[in-house]
Write a structure and sequence with these properties.
486 residues, TIM Barrel, 9-stranded mixed β-sheet, 34% helix, disordered N terminus
Length: 486
């Protein structure tokens, strides 16, 4: 027995030694990048300790208490070394948005609510040109808009919003969803609130198509707000029923803007469904206002009563002015983005602090000087305001909600996400390094185009895109995050 134990010990020691890369001369390898003396926090293993990280060829190669050598060295003493943040819900998928996101610690930006009707084209437009990783769903909204020849741009304003689809149109919509999934769309995006005329049967059929591809359905509920029978709870009950009937995984987007003051009730319903085996998840952004297009179906007749707000709670982003009955009518005809102050602080705090709820920005394209700050500052706001200042959740819990949980939401369909959201050997070197005592959101509703502070380094696939708190010019290490194609 002693001989057997000795042989096992020798074999284990040899494996541990060989696991560390060696140079040709037998010395410890020189990595492309080494992060030294940082507080490494990994939500998957709960590692929270001072470690050194070696990176080569875009991958994390070693996590060690020993000193490592690198061609480039990042001194991280006093800083947290965390997985790069994965944003499941970001509509601004352009270079300027990516710059703000990188400075907010985001390394993977995903448009999964609205999505696209042409997955191949969407990815091709960003390949080799992106600061951070990027990905998209096939979207029920844009597919429906194309099939029904809707005149809207981002959101429908014509038939796709206000008319039931014919049998022929339904066939084309379903074929478009199926095609997008076969071309590697990460999920199915759905905004039923914006396609209010879509029948319950149409929505159920989309769930069935998603289930056949093992794709999660990321849903903006049919209803939001406080007025029966069109409350957020009613909207949630519809899609939970569809998930049960179809077997499709369900992800409810921005739960606070759906439930408003009843957000805790919606969270309890989701927890009950999960306790009974349903694959349902949700997300929130850490703000008391939402943002959307003024010309959309959300502002159809009765919007004030449904949402419990009035004109003065709506801000026109092009000028920053709060609306009146006259300016509401004028700008609704013109079309554009508004910020909508409708979420109680208690609801925002309840969702941010709940261990079930992921963090996602719902950031908007930068179209005016008063765009919502969430696309620029969501993650730093959680870490600075809610973790450090409000102390409503722990740092590790916050990181888990920003990294591991979003990756796990997608990894069954898209195995690429098994290497994201973690700090582990073999994982993607998407890493955010921040100062837990200084990280903070600087973007405000009054001055939203301000980058976050306290995040000195961000690496995407092992390449620094933020160094010493500043963007690195002329680097495009972002890669497509895509499901396998058929």
């Amino acid at each position: 027995m002693r001989i057997l134990n000795w042989m096992i010990a020798v074999s284990l020691a040899g494996w541990l030694f060989s696991a560390r890369p060696l140079a040709a001369d037998g010395a410890a390898a020189i990595f492309d990048v080494v992060i030294l003396h940082g507080r490494v926090m990994d939500p998957e293993t709960n590692l929270d300790a001072i470690r050194n990280v070696g990176i080569s060829n875009g991958k994390i190669r070693e996590i060690s208490e020993n000193e490592l050598r690198g061609k480039e060295t990042i001194e991280a003493r006093g800083l947290v070394v965390a997985p790069g943040f994965v944003d499941l819900h970001e509509h601004g998928q352009e270079p300027r948005n990516y710059q703000f996101q990188a400075r907010d610690g985001v390394t993977t930006s995903l448009e999964l609510e609205a999505g696209t009707d042409d997955v191949d084209k969407w990815y091709a437009e960003r390949e080799g040109k992106a600061l951070i990783n990027f990905g998209v769903s096939v979207g029920h909204i844009p597919v429906r808009m194309r099939v029904m020849k809707d005149p809207g741009t981002f959101l429908p304003t014509g038939d796709a919003a206000h008319r039931e689809a014919t049998a022929e149109e339904l066939k084309a919509i379903n074929e478009g969803i199926d095609r997008g999934l076969k071309r590697g769309g990460l999920a199915v995006g759905m905004g039923i609130n914006y396609t209010a005329a879509a029948t319950h049967e149409e929505i159920l059929e989309v769930f069935r198509i998603a289930a056949s591809a093992n794709a999660s359905v990321h849903v903006h509920l049919r209803h939001a707000g406080l007025k029966e029978p069109t409350t957020g709870l009613v909207g949630l009950q519809e899609v939970i029923a569809d998930a049960v009937a179809s077997g499709a995984p369900l992800h409810v987007v921005h739960i606070t803007s759906m439930g408003l003051r009843t957000t805790p009730t919606l969270l309890e319903v989701i927890k009950g469904a999960r306790a009974r085996g349903l694959d349902v998840t949700t997300e929130c952004y850490p703000y008391t206002a939402g943002s959307t297009a003024l010309e959309s179906a959300i502002f159809d007749e009765g919007w004030q009563e449904r949402q419990g707000i009035t004109y003065k709670d709506v801000q026109w982003t092009k000028t920053g002015e709060r609306l009146t009955a006259e300016t509401f009518a004028k700008y609704r005809k013109e079309g554009g983005v508004v910020v909508v102050f409708s979420i109680p602080e208690e609801a925002a705090r309840a969702a941010v602090s709940d261990t079930l709820v992921m963090i996602a920005s719902d950031g908007m394209p930068i179209t005016g000087s008063k765009v919502h700050p969430r696309g620029q500052a969501t993650f730093a706001r959680v870490l600075g305001h809610y973790v450090r200042q409000e102390k409503v959740l722990s740092l590790m819990t916050a990181l888990r909600k920003m990294t591991l949980m979003p990756a796990q939401r997608l990894e069954k369909r898209a195995p690429i996400f098994r290497d994201k959201g973690r700090i582990r050997a073999g994982g993607d070197a998407d890493i955010t390094i921040f100062d837990p005592a200084k990280v903070i959101d600087k973007a405000t509703f009054a001055d939203p185009l301000q980058p976050s502070g306290g995040i000195p380094f961000v690496l995407v696939n092992g390449i620094a895109v933020v160094r010493d708190g500043q963007l690195v010019n002329d680097v495009f290490p972002g890669r497509a995050a895509r499901a396998p194609m058929q």
